[in-house]
Each structure stands twice: as C-alpha cells, then as structure tokens.
Design brief:
The protein is mainly alpha-helical and about 350 residues long. The protein has two domains: about 20-80, no CATH class; about 130-330, no CATH class. About 50% of the residues lie in helices and about 0% in strands. The chain has helices spanning about 30-35, 40-45, 130-165, 175-220, 225-235, 240-255, 265-290, 295-330; strands spanning about 25, 80. A two-stranded antiparallel sheet has the order 1-2. Helix 4 (about 175-220) packs across helix 6. The longest helix has about 45 residues, at about 175-220. The protein is elongated. The model is unreliable at about 1-35 and about 40-45 (pLDDT under 50).
Length: about 350
Amino acid sequence: MPGARYRAPARAFRKSSDVPAAPGARRDGPDAARRCFEPDAARRCAMTCPRCGRAQPVEAGGPFCAHCGQFLVPMRWVASPPPVDPSRPVPPAPRQPYAGPPRYPSTPTWGYPALPWQRAGSEAGSRPPVEMLLGQAGLLVPMLRGLAVLAVLSAFAEGWRYVLLLRSRTSALDASEVAASDALVGAASWVTVLLTVAAGLLLLYWVLGALRASAARTGRLPARSARTVVLGWLVPGANVAVPGSVMAEIEHAALDRPPGQRPTPSTLVRVWWGLWASNVVLGVLSVGWLLREGAQARADGVIQHALLDLVVAATAVVTARLVTELTALIAPPRVVPLPRVVRVTAPVASTVSPR
C-alpha cells in the first residue's frame, strides 16, 4: 500500500545467541556485527543472506537483507579440536594385514639415481679430511709395494749387467744374452722411474691430507702451510731435511701431544728419514756419474744404479709401513667384535610324540 512501511517477519529479529552453536566452535560477539554495519561494511564482510542466498549490494545499509528483509547476523565459526582427557589411553591404530609386495599395473618409470651410498647429512663433493686420507692411503700403500718389487727387479737387472761386464774381460759374450740384459735393464729402469715419480706425487698429496686431518682431529691449525711443504719436498737440498720434519710433526699431532712441545720422532720415522736422505743423495750421485766416460766409469755406474735400486726398494717398503701407521693413528679403524661361543648346552628333548 502507498505509504506503508515494510516490517520484517518476527523470526528475523531473533538474537544471534538464540542460534545453537556447534560443539567445539565459537562465534564472534556483537562487536563483529557492529563492525560489519559500519560504512563500507559490505566490502569487508561480503555477507550473503541465509534465507534467499543473495549477496548484499554495496550501497545497502542496516542489519536487514535488501531483498527479503532477513535479519543479518554476522558470524564466524571457528572449529577447534575437542578436549582430550590425558588419563584416557589412546587406542593403537589397527595393524593392517600384510598384502604382499607392491604390485604395479605397468613397469614403473621412476627410480633412484645411479649414485654411490653416502652418509646421512653429507653433501656431494664435501668429504671429510679423514675419509680422503683413508682413500689416499688405500691407493698409496699398494703402489709403494709394487715399486719395491720393481726396484728389486731393476737391481737384479743391473747386477746381471755387471756380471756380463766381468765376463767380457776374459771371453766373448753371446749377443742374445747381452740383448736380453739390455732389454731387462731398460724396461725395469724406466718403469721404476715412472712409478717412483707417481708414488712420490701421491705421497706428497697424502702428506698434505695428513697435515689437514691431524690438525682437524686436534682442533688446531696445521704446523706448516701447503706451499711450504711442497717447496720443502721438491727443492734440492731442502728435500733432505723437510720431509723428515713434516713426518715427525704429523706423528706428533696424531699422538695428541702438546702443540708447544718439540716433536720427538719415533724409530720408524727416523729410519724412514735416513732412507729418504740416502735415496736423494744416491740419486744425485747416479745422475752426476752418467757424465763420466770410460769403461770403468760405466762399470761403477752399474754398481751405483744397483745400490740405488735397493735403497729405493727399502724406502718404498718403509714408506708403506709409515703411511699405514700414521693413517691408523689419525683415523683409528673401527673394531667390530666378532661373535664367540660362550656356552654350549644340550638340546631340549622334544615332548611331542611322533604320529
């Protein structure tokens, strides 16, 4: 009718507290309703009429629906877990029966990458110094033992040549025997030289790793820098004294001795030091002896080469022993107890009668 005012149904004026709340849920109070009915409230609340399901226009105001007159109560339901009684035991989850190995309808296209096993937390390319030292020692020790065998073979070849030189003073030699001796001397000598250089470089690399590993084990900095060690190992003159000092320092740090104490090398280190110095001196003399001419100089050169080969073999054997000992001091091997029989008892007689 003209001039009549719209009156909302009576049920539209029920309070928000009359609406029952779900268990474990809470409802915002009248402050939220007041905020939603402020200017520009529709943009914030985005209310939808629960009766007609139509959204309220932006220009609409008041607590009633602009379409059907339903009283709008802004609410926000928040679910919360029900209270847990700590005295009540939690029942275990039922265990599902074993259904057999997994089965796929087709061949899987996924899989693990082809990578070696790594320890938990380790990153690729970041191996600890101790593991690197163990790997270097595992390659160096067999190489040194092989060098010892080749050096002994080269010394035997030089001895055979010297015997031929002595026989040539009184009688003629067979050409095939001389050719075989020359071939054996040449092959053994060159292979021994090449393997000596390779083992020396790997030994230097192991020494640098041992310095880092021993320093990391004791929580101190290395006594020498890598550059100082390399120069002392390669410069003539210094390579007689520096290698023995470096080995003594590695042994001193591996035994957890005080850093301010003067290193006292063990008997094994002293023997190795003497053999190393003898090897260097004999190597220089052998190279210088090659510049001399004459039959007697050649005969003396054969003796020197044979002696040098024997010293190289002894140095290689002692070096392998020293590398093994120092590696075991820096990275002690893990002792795995083996099972042993403590007691043997007679079997219990079966009480089940045969059928």
